Structures are given as C-alpha cells and as structure tokens.
Amino acid sequence: MRFLTVPPVVLHLFLLLFLASPATACTKQEKRNLLQFLAGLSQDGGLAASWRDNGTDCCEWEGVVCNGDGAVAEVSLGSKGLEGRISPSLADLTSLLHVNLSYNSFSGGLPPELMFSGSIIVLDVSFSRLNGPLPELPYLVTTDRPLQVLNISSNQFSSEFPSATWKVMKNLIALNASNNSFTGHIPSSLCIGLPSLALLDLCYNQLSGDIPNTLGNCSKLKVLKAGNNHISGILPVEIFHATSLEYLSFPNNGGLQGELDGAHIVKLNNLLTLDLGGNSFSGTIPESIGQLRRLEELHLGSNNMSGELPSTMSNCTNLKTIDLKINNFSGNLGKVNFATLPNLKTLDLMKNNLSGIIPESIYSCSNLTALRLSINHFHGEISTRIGNLKHLSFLSLTENSFTNITKVLHALQSCRSISVLLIGKNFMNEAMPPDETIDGFQNLQYLAVHHCSLTGRIPIWLSKLTNLKILDLFNNRLTGPIPSWINSLNHLFHLDVSNNSLTGEIPITLMQMTMFKSDKAGIYSDPSLLDLGLLIYAADPSKLQYRINSARAKELNLGNNKFTGVIPQEIGQLKALLYLNLSSNNFYGEIPQSIGNLTDLQKLDLSNNHLTGEIPAALEILHFLSEFNISNNNLEGPIPTKGQLSTFQASSFNGNPKLCGSLLINHCDSVEAPPISIISAKQCSNKVTFAIAFGVFFGVGVLYDQLVLFRYFG
Ligand SMILES: *[C@@H]1O[C@H](CO)[C@@H](O)[C@H](O)[C@H]1NC(C)=O
Ligand SMILES: *[C@@H]1O[C@H](CO)[C@@H](O)[C@H](O)[C@H]1NC(C)=O
Ligand SMILES: *[C@@H]1O[C@H](CO)[C@@H](O)[C@H](O)[C@H]1NC(C)=O
Ligand SMILES: *[C@@H]1O[C@H](CO)[C@@H](O)[C@H](O)[C@H]1NC(C)=O
Ligand SMILES: *[C@@H]1O[C@H](CO)[C@@H](O)[C@H](O)[C@H]1NC(C)=O
Ligand SMILES: *[C@@H]1O[C@H](CO)[C@@H](O)[C@H](O)[C@H]1NC(C)=O
Ligand SMILES: *[C@@H]1O[C@H](CO)[C@@H](O)[C@H](O)[C@H]1NC(C)=O
Ligand SMILES: *[C@@H]1O[C@H](CO)[C@@H](O)[C@H](O)[C@H]1NC(C)=O
Ligand SMILES: *[C@@H]1O[C@H](CO)[C@@H](O)[C@H](O)[C@H]1NC(C)=O
Ligand SMILES: *[C@@H]1O[C@H](CO)[C@@H](O)[C@H](O)[C@H]1NC(C)=O
Ligand SMILES: *[C@@H]1O[C@H](CO)[C@@H](O)[C@H](O)[C@H]1NC(C)=O
Ligand SMILES: *[C@@H]1O[C@H](CO)[C@@H](O)[C@H](O)[C@H]1NC(C)=O
Questions:
Q1: What sign does the dihedral 463-465-467-469 (CA atoms) show?
Q2: Which of 168, 401, 556, 602 is the most exposed place for a label (fewest CB within 10 A)?
Q3: What would the pLDDT profile of 674-688 be if each residue is shown by its tens digit?
Q4: Pocket lining for ligand 5, CB < 6 angstroms
C-alpha cells in the first residue's frame, strides 16, 4: 500500500515540485508506472509500439490522456485485446482520474490499489474476465475515496458481496456489479455509506436474503436493479422513501412476495420502469397506479396476481410495455381505455383468467407491435379495425374462444409487418378460408392454426407466404392432398399437418423442400422482441418455467391422416430432418433403405401403417435416434441386433406378427439368428459402459418427460 502510507503533505510537495516546473510533458515516474503496467501484460494488443521509453512524451502514448499540467489523467484502454494481469502501478499515477480497461481479457483480480485509489473517480473494468473476490477494504484506508463510478459488471467475481468496502465510498454515484457470481446479501449498510448513489445494478448474481429496508435511505437513487438473483421476502415499506427512483427492477428472483400497496407505490411518482416479473407477488394492481404518470414499462408477469385491471391504467399515458402474463387476472378489459395509451408497443396478457370481448380501444394503439392474448377466455370476433395496427409483428390469440377466422385473416392482411401469427385453439369447426383473395402476410414466418377442427383443404393462399418457416395445422379436419406447390415455401423447416383427414400420396415436391435438405439452422426471428418462450409446466404448477427458444427442430409430421402409397425412396434427401412422423396412415410397401441417410434423425415414427418387408439394416446407423416406432405394420424378419435399434423396447416393434427378436414373443429361430460372436473382455466392458450411459441418458429423458406435462408456444 505504498500510496496509502505517503502523508498528504509530502504528496503535495511532490506535486508542487513538478507543477512548478514549466515542462508539460509527463514525468519519468509516470512513464515508469505506465511501463510497469505494460510489463504486467502477456498480450499488449500492440500497445508497445507507442508506449516506448525513447524520449517521447507519454501524454502522446495510445490511450493516455494528460491534463493541462502534463500529468496523466486518463488511461483508456477499452477493447485493446489486453491479456495478463492488471498491475497496481497505475494507482501510483497521482493525477489519474479516469481508468477504462473494459472489454479486455485479463486474468486475476482487481488490484485494491485501483479500487481504493486516492485520485481515481471513474473505474471501468467491465467485461474484462476478472475473477476472485472483490478487494476487501484495506484496514489502512479510513478516509473517503474520490471514486464516483465503479463498473465491475460482466466479470467473474465470485466472493460474498462486500459490505465494509462501501464505508469509504461516500462519493460513489454509480455501482454496476451485475453479471458476476457474487453471493451473500445486499449489505444493509449500503445506503448508509453511499449517500450519493444514483445507480445500483446487482442483477445476474447469486445474491440471496431479504431486500434491506435501508435501501430507502438512498434518497438520490434513480436506478435500482437486482433481478435474476435469489432474493426473497417482501418489498420493504422503506424502499418507497427512495422517491427519486426511475427504475425499480427485481425480476426473476422467484421468491419475492406480498402485495403492491397502492398507498406506497404512488410515492414513486418518477418511476419509468417497474419490473417485478418472475416472483410470487399476489393481490391486485392498485388503483393508484394511474398516478404514476411517467410509467413506461410495467412488468408483473409470472406472479400470482389477480383481480381486474384497474381503469386508472388508462392514465399512465406513457406506457410502452404492459406485461402481465402468467397470473390470475380476471374480468374483462372493458374498464381500461387503451385509446389513451398511444405509445403502447407491447401488451402481453398471456395465461390469465380474462374474459369478454377485445375492447375496440385496443385498435387505437397504432404503435402496437406485439399483442399476446393467448390462454384466456376471450370470445367474439376480432374487429376489422385490427388492420389499423400497421406495426403489429406478433399476434397470439391462441386458446380462447374467438370466432370467424375468415374475418380475422382478411383484416390482418393489411398488417404488413406481421411475422408471427398464432391463432390455434379458436374458431372451432369453422372452415379454412379457401379463397385466393387473401393476400399479404409477406413477412409471416410462423403461422399456427392448430386445434381448430377446421374443415376444407390446405388453402392456396399459403403458397404466397414465401417467408414462412413454421406451419402448424395439426388437429383440424382438413381434407384433400398436400398441394404440390409446397416446395415453393423455400424457408419452411417445420411442417406439422398431423391429425387431419388429408389424403393422397406423398407429393414428390415435398421431398424437395429446401430447408429439409439443407444444413442451415432452423431459426425464426421474432422482431417484436417478445420472448416467445417455450412454456414449460413443471410437475409443481407453481414453478412455471419460461424458456427463450427461437430455434425449433426441423420436423415433418404427417401422422394420423389418410395418406396412402409407398414412402418415396427420395425421402433420403431430407437429410436435415430431426423428427419424421408418418404414423397412422395407409402407407404400404417397404421402408426405404434411404431413411438410413437421415443421419440427424432423433424421432422416427412409422407405426400403424401397412408397411411390409424387413427392417432395413441401414437404420442401424441412425445414432441420434431416441424415439423409434414401427409397431402395428406387417414387417417381417429379425430386429437388427446392432446399433441404435437394439436399444428400443418391445413396444417399438409390437404388432408385427412376422417380426422376430429376443425382445418379442416371437424369437428368431436359430437358423436365421445371427452368428453368436465371441467378444473379448474389452468389447464386453465397452458394451456395459454403453448400456450404463444409455440408461442414464434414457432415465433423464423419462424424468424430463414426466416433468413436462404439456408445453406449447403461446
Ligand atoms: C520513439 O518511438 C516511436 C514509435 O516507434 C517513433 O515514432 C519515434 O520517432 C521515436 N522517438 C525517438 C525520439 O526516437
Ligand atoms: C469505457 O470504454 C467503453 C468502450 O471501450 C465505453 O463503452 C464505456 O462507456 C467507457 N466507460 C466509461 C465509464 O466511460
Ligand atoms: C460502466 O458503467 C458506467 C456507469 O454506468 C458507464 O458509464 C459505462 O459506459 C459502463 N461501461 C460499459 C463498457 O458499458
Ligand atoms: C450494467 O452493466 C451491464 C453490462 O455488464 C449492462 O448491460 C447494464 O445495462 C448496466 N446497468 C445499468 C443500470 O446501466
Ligand atoms: C455477462 O458476462 C459475459 C462475460 O463474462 C458476457 O459474455 C455476457 O454477454 C454478459 N451478459 C450480460 C447480460 O451482460
Ligand atoms: C434511514 O431512513 C430512515 C427513514 O426511512 C430514517 O429513520 C433513518 O434515520 C435513516 N438512517 C440514516 C442512517 O440516515
Ligand atoms: C396465489 O394467490 C392465492 C390468493 O389469490 C393464494 O390462495 C395462493 O396460495 C397463492 N399461490 C401461491 C403459489 O402463492
Ligand atoms: C385520470 O386522471 C384525471 C385527473 O388528471 C382524473 O380526473 C381521471 O378520473 C383519471 N382517470 C382515471 C381513469 O382514473
Ligand atoms: C383465480 O381467480 C379466481 C377468481 O377470479 C379463483 O376462483 C381461482 O381459484 C384463482 N386461481 C388460482 C390458481 O389462484
Ligand atoms: C408511435 O411512437 C413514436 C415513437 O416511437 C411516436 O413518435 C408516435 O407519436 C407514436 N404514435 C402515436 C400514434 O402516438
Ligand atoms: C364473418 O365475418 C364476415 C365479415 O364481417 C361476415 O361476412 C361473415 O358473415 C362472418 N361469418 C360468420 C360465420 O359469422
Ligand atoms: C445416401 O445418399 C448417397 C448420396 O448422398 C447415395 O449415394 C446413397 O445411395 C444413399 N444411401 C441410401 C441408403 O439411399
């Protein structure tokens, strides 16, 4: 702690000596300190080219800025590709005010000399791979440090979050410690020690315990973020004394609970963002929310809240985002006048208990880009005024009781931006609009019209959706063939038409689908930025999990229809398929050898058809297969004893009277049985290892399946 033991008087004299001299170049000592820092690096990112001790003024060195007196005041070396250790020698630069070492790849920790420097006011070491504990307060340091901005975010610090450190940081204005692995509690002394604190970001750590009520003593606090930790308990009343707060954000802690007290929340009338999603809050949205006139973002999703949405929400005229998904809100939306919310971009009410019709006022929100009303009890027709929503890119109406699909689709044609349209589980027993007058949807990537019992054929207007990537038409009553234009959908990588009454043979054009043949990843983008998560209902319904997932398996599902004919040899071209389901149709003939070419296949279901002949040996090489079903056909001969097929249960093969194998009642007679191979001890142990590995894999798989009771895209 050299710098700490120098008495200030000596320091002053020292400084005066240099300031008195007319030279405005940096001192030898400063050069030495900088070169010492350079020496600590194992990778200097080319810095050595300008940091040279050959008589140049170090004020001219890359990333070094001097003050008017020629003393080093700033070291800015962000994104320079630096590796190695941060030398404490920087702290010996007595005029140094700003240090920016962000976006490098250091090893080791942050030297305490820098953090407790007597001069530095801004220290940014974010995104720099620093690890270990954050320096503890050295016991020699007793006076206040000048540090105002400390950004240690996005490193790998892993200690208990320090509490003593902040006692000497009275000048600290911004502290960003997010995205590390800090443990322990939010220190209760934090706001006692930091009267100037305006920004505190602790999110993405491992913090636990309660929110200390002393946070309310940070009277200057504008930004408070501590999401994605394990913090529990209630929002202490005192926190509402921090009336400067603009961002109050504690999402995804899981355990925060209690009700939002209307009398308290109004005190935070500067709030722009209230984010308490992903917790266990209960009760209603208080009427007084209408007094938060500046509010732009309201996130209360994934809690246990209930009651009606208060009419006063209409008074929060700056609202851009309303996220109330996965709660138990009820009643209809009629009380809220959405027409007074012209800035609204995202309205997410997924999975609540809401009912009634969609209020007309919603269609006045012309900036709306994402509207999710899925899994509620809404009914009635969607007004043609929905066509006014020119920016709408995401619309989900899934699982309500809406009627008149023709009207919805006609109205939505004028929403040119729409890219995700999910309207399944509505429109029961209506007819698929057949007409060619439906035009538009040029940007549609994902269309889901499943579980509607729709009649009619696969309509020709779908052929114009040239950007379509995912098409879900399962669980309807569609008839007729798969149209031959199907291969004009060049981006389609997921086609599910299962559980309909489709007829005819597999068209040869289906075997030419670009995305089923290509390695290009099956990803759709969701421009609304609404995380179209895969909703996973765990066995314990209070622990809903929400996964961001914009990639889906390449899948062709024709199961449970009335298709006929043979499975074309050309199916071997669809090399990129992960799931192939042709089950419960009237396919006959042999299983083509070429299916062995679908080497990425994870699920193959050919059950309940009239397939004949032997199981192709080529199937043995499908190493990724985890689900396989050829039951209830007329297959014959032995079940292959090698490769992946030998690992499936009898149920995968049952109902083929002429099939034989050790699994089945029907053992192969010795004549046909493959010769018994004499395996060495080594091979034998390999097999045992494989069996155990498989058992573990399969065991986990089963457990997972039990956990996932049902899942769908909202
Ligand atoms: C010092 O090195 C720099 C960079 O290589 C060079 O541009 C400069 O001319 C050198 N100065 C002297 C005095 O040698
Ligand atoms: C540090 O530099 C990075 C760019 O490399 C910049 O984004 C960041 O704002 C700087 N930090 C401070 C505190 O100015
Ligand atoms: C670190 O945080 C400070 C204060 O919030 C900010 O000015 C700076 O830009 C941040 N650095 C980076 C690299 O984002
Ligand atoms: C804190 O830093 C992270 C990056 O590490 C950044 O994403 C976040 O916005 C910062 N917090 C605040 C409040 O500026
Ligand atoms: C967290 O930090 C890692 C590097 O440690 C970085 O790659 C990642 O983008 C950061 N995440 C956020 C949310 O800032
Ligand atoms: C913290 O705030 C409370 C009121 O919320 C006050 O009673 C207490 O004295 C404050 N503590 C300090 C140390 O300022
Ligand atoms: C959800 O809230 C209801 C009251 O509205 C309560 O009975 C129930 O226990 C709460 N559930 C959880 C998981 O907190
Ligand atoms: C909105 O605020 C005004 C006062 O500014 C009040 O008269 C009106 O009743 C409020 N509206 C609602 C719906 O609460
Ligand atoms: C949701 O609220 C309704 C009342 O509107 C209540 O009957 C029901 O039990 C609640 N469901 C849950 C899961 O709390
Ligand atoms: C839509 O948002 C923009 C800013 O993104 C704003 O200028 C405009 O006024 C909004 N539209 C309406 C109808 O308020
Ligand atoms: C659906 O809406 C259209 C257009 O408003 C209307 O002409 C038609 O009669 C409606 N269909 C049904 C079944 O109500
Ligand atoms: C697999 O594909 C290759 C060409 O990619 C072809 O030569 C081979 O015959 C195919 N195998 C089967 C079993 O169809």
A1: negative
A2: 401
A3: 433 333 333 333 333
A4: 154, 179
Q: Name the closest-CA residue to atom 5, ligand 8.
A: 315
Q: What is the 3-state secondary structure (H, E, C) of 245-272?
A: CCEEECCCCCEEEEECCHHHHCCCCCCC
Cβ(479)–Cβ(455) under 8 Å?
A: yes
Query: Which has the closest alpha carbon to 412: 460, 452, 457, 447?
Result: 447
Cα→Cα distances 540→325, 327, 537, 706, 709, Å: 18, 16, 8, 11, 10
Cα angle 462, 467, 470 (rounded to 5 degrees) comes to: 75
Q: Whose CA is nearest to atom 2 of ligand 9?
A: 328
The C-alpha atoms of residue 96 and residue 82 are separated, in whole angstroms, by: 20
Q: Quick check: 576 pLDDT over 70?
A: yes
- Per the structure block, which two tokens stand in for 670? 């010795």
The candidate with the shortest Cα–Cα distance to 549, out of 407, 711, 438, is 711
The predicted pLDDT at position 56 comes to 87
Q: Give the CA count within 13 Å in the CB-facing half-sphere of 118.
A: 18
Q: Which residues line ligand 11 (CB under 6 A)?
A: 404, 406-407
Residue 148 CA to residue 169 CA, distance in Å, equals 8
Q: pLDDT category, 437, cuts 50, 70, 90?
A: confident
Question: Could you report the per-residue pLDDT of 268-284, keeping only the tens digit for each?
Answer: 999 999 999 999 999 99
Provide the token pair at 102.
């962000």
* Residues 71-79, mean pLDDT to the nearest whole number: 96
- 137 vs 368, more confident: 368
φ/ψ (deg, to 5) at 79: 50, 40
How far, in Å, from the CA of 337 to the mean position of ligand 11? Answer: 27
Q: What is the DSSP letter of 299?
A: E
Q: 444 and 418 in contact (C-beta within 8 Å)? A: yes
What's the CA angle centered on 251, arms 249 and 255, to 5 degrees?
Answer: 120
Q: Whose CA is nearest to atom 9 of ligand 9?
A: 328
Give me ligand 1 centre to Cα 66, in Å. Answer: 19
Amino acid at 695: G
Structure tokens at 595: 């299916």
**Is the per-residue pLDDT at 706 higher than 60?**
no
pTM, entire model: 0.86
From the CB of 306, is ligand 9 less than 6 Å away?
yes
Per-residue pLDDT at 591 exceeds 50: yes
Q: Does ligand 6 have an atom closer than 6 angstroms to the CB of 321?
A: no
Is the distance from CB of 306 to CB of 329 less than 8 angstroms? yes
**Ligand 12 within 6 A of CB of 568:** no
Ligand 8 atom with least separation from CA of 313: 13
Q: Exposed, middle or buried: residue 510 (CB in 10 Å: 0-12, 13-18, 19+)?
A: buried
